[in-house]
Amino acid sequence: AVDRVEGWLRLARLRNADKRLALILSTYPGRDHNLAHAVGLDALASCDVILRELAAKGYAVEALENTGLRLMDETLSVPLEDYRQALSTLPQDLQDTLAEAWGDLEEDPDCRDGAFHFKALRAGNALVALQPERGEVKTRVDDYHDLDRTPRHAYVAFYLWLRSQTDALIHIGAHGTLEWLPGKAVALSGACWPEVLTGPLPVAYPFIVNDPGEAAQAKRRIGAVTIGHLPPPLAQTTMPEGMARLESLLDEYSTADGLDPARRDRLIGDIRAEAQGTGVEADLGLTPDTSPAEAITRIDAFVCDIKESQYGEGLHVFGTGQCGAEERAGLIAALEGKIVTPGPSGSPFRGRTDVIPTGRNLFTTDPRAVPSRAAHAQGVKLAEELLRRHLQDHGDWPKGLVIDLWGSATMRTAGEEFAMALHLAGLAPQWDEGSERVSGFEVLPLSMLNRPRIDVTLRVSGLFRDVFPGLAQMFESAAAALAAREETQADNPYLTEIPRVFGPKPGQYGLSMNPHLDDYTDAARQAAGEAWLNASSHAIDAKGTISDAREALESRLQGADSFVHLQDLPETDLLIASDYAAHEAGFAAAMARIGQTAPALYHLDATRPDKPQARSLGEEIARVTRARAANPDWATSMMGHGFRGAAEIAATLDHMAAFAHLAQVVQPHLFDLYFEATLGRDDLVEFMERENPDALQAMRDRFRALFDAGLWSTRRNSIMAELEGAA
């Protein structure tokens, strides 16, 4: 800690012209055409803005051109002898661990001709570099959040080299791997890799303002000043051209209903025929046996959902836009060793106007005050909406519900999802009147609920496990209290005492299933399901003890008939990032792995607190595909971001494919729509060929693989002809 303070003081004393900086870009999520990935941020364009701002403030830095394409090929080298000398200064235990995990340093794939070679570019006194792989390329995504995985020699060499060559690090965008290396979760020591590799170097970290959980990880484990930046701006969806006639027919029906029965009946037939032809009936799971009243109601609601949808338009560029001056000022203040004003985290598009202006040092909520009173009230509303949808679909209450809880979302909403879980079980939090911290819970009588208690199992993320251990313990304590009630088994499934809160083992984050997402065989799906089970098999009890409980987990899943994941961010969706497919579709694969029938999969849209909506997973994918992914306006917005925009377009297809592979919830016509909106556009293909040809080839390969695996069938000969012609 003293060395870190001295590092900041030294940075304050240095003249700007003498400061040596390293701008670090991520290699996550594991494909070369997707380098410099950052959530909601064009990290390459942001790098350009930062270099210009540094030059304007007297730093001896230079501008770069074609950074993305150049970083795929150009390297800087560090002699092996320099690494050997630096390595000898590390604690012997770490040296031994490194040798045991990776063998001799000359066996590292980035080592050749007596040196390590790093993808990096010189920009005067600045270095722009890709963070090296921390492990094997084939497991790079799963290594990302694995605290058990020792970083390989090249990774260690890179950061030890930076310690001797730079005065500060700028990690650009959420997020890299340094803060996820092995070691303690908090209060790190000289035996922890993040502490050893960072050393006294100050770390400034431009970070999306709506991700408090992973920003907190960077603060706790590498001492970063996390400088908040805006998400992409919200854009209103325009009705897809292919649905214009359906919308018109529905409008006509609304005026005819009750006034002209004959015309109304004709319109019902026309609407259903149009909905069938456009694939909407398949999106909604409607069949010829579905009653006209139900079909029209659901088709109309789906069309309205699309009209009301919003999406993140393009990517944010750090230091530009509404808070551009503040973002640049925050970074410069950090690099001058000055205090960066603290600021809250959350989504500015979900009522958190207090996060504006960005450019401040992010902080988050008090875990002891979660759920807040407001979050509890919203959680009740969410629970009632979920129950409404389940009753509509199945005519009964859920028999066993698995709720997927994430740490960052819980921070953003102050615990709405957890409050939902409490209400479903017939519980409510209690608060200390002075501090507003949660002090306990109360059991609600069945007469107040007017329904049975819902049998809830919580699957918590690694970050939730670390940040909110008290909530996991409270839920188990509450379950024990329910077990002591004099109620019938039909009304109170908690009479059967069994662990109900599960997550990954201590030190593990993520689900480790990515190696199985590119292989569309049944064996790969089974392996993905096994990965979900392995990463969810540790139970947390009322005392906070975490233990392996695979048998108890499977017992809970065997009684589960439904699953829900809640989404609170308006500026993102389930096809933006791979985590959604891994968690939601991964659960479906896990159920198949243990021989259970397909559960009801729900995606609970809480982006509008006044109007939460529970949709089936298939419906949500269809809505997002039509409203954002296959919307030509979205693709056009990404064309303004060069290399990174092309990578984002390719990534959406990857995530659609993962849902199709693991959960079979993507209708074939949705892939048709996405193909036409991307590879079916000459201007977009030309853009990708120019800016990121590897991303274009990856999309073509992905479409072919989906077709070959039977996950996509198209009746449009032009599509297959185009793919074959591009082979």
Question: Could you walk me through the main structural features you see in this protein, from its secondary elements to its overall organization?
Answer:
The protein is α/β, with parallel strands linked by helices. It folds into four domains: 2-234 and 315-338, no CATH class; 238-308, no CATH class; 398-409 and 454-625, no CATH class; 630-725, no CATH class. Strands 1, 2, 3, 4, 5, 6, 7 and 8 form an eight-stranded mixed sheet that branches. Strands 19-18-17-16-13-20-21-22 form an eight-stranded mixed sheet, with helices on both faces. A two-stranded antiparallel sheet has the order 9-10. The protein is globular.
Radius of gyration: 26 Å
User: Structural class per helix/strand content?
Assistant: alpha/beta
What is the overall shape?
globular
Task: Tell me the helix content.
Answer: 40-55%
Q: Quick check: average pLDDT? A: 95
Fold topology:
Layout (H helix, E strand, L loop, with lengths): L1 H12 L7 E5 L17 H14 L10 H5 L3 E5 H8 L4 H11 L8 E2 L2 E9 L2 E5 L9 H4 L9 H13 L2 E4 L21 H6 L4 E6 L3 H11 L2 E5 L4 E3 L7 H13 L4 H17 L2 H5 L7 H17 L1 E3 L11 H12 L6 E3 L16 E3 L9 H22 L6 E5 L1 H7 L2 H10 L1 E5 L6 E6 L2 H4 L6 E5 L1 H6 L1 H15 L17 E3 L18 H13 L3 E3 L5 E3 L1 H9 L3 E6 L10 H16 L6 E6 L7 E4 H13 L2 H7 L3 H22 L4 H10 L4 H10 L1 H16 L8 H9 L2
Parallel strand pairs: 1-5, 1-6, 6-7, 7-8, 11-12, 13-16, 13-20, 16-17, 20-21
Antiparallel strand pairs: 2-4, 3-4, 4-5, 9-10, 14-15, 17-18, 18-19, 21-22
